[in-house]
Amino acid sequence: MNPYLAIPLLLIALLIAAAGIAAITRNWVLPMNRRHVRSPRLYGWGQLVVAFALCWQLVFGMLISDPDTRIRGTLAGGVMLLAGLIVMMVGQLASGRRRGSNTP
Fold this sequence. Notes:
By secondary structure, this protein is mainly α. It is built from three helices and no strands. The radius of gyration is 16 Å and the shape is elongated. The N and C termini lie far apart (50 Å).
């Protein structure tokens, strides 16, 4: 993996992790996602899993030289990335404290 790809990927992973920590600790979600997220803590855990998966893929793409281990590691990172995205989607669909009308 090229360092020109690795550095932006690491920065994106750090930003996603920071947003996940803010969602877990303070129930704060980015303004563009506030309307859609119903369970900020669950959404934050999903963001942390996505950030970890990006770092996992970065490590296995840059530092591991064995081809078999590299393939298995990046595949595991892809599965973790998908799992994190699913958790984020559940955080958007989960019935949390809804603001608005009391109609079902």
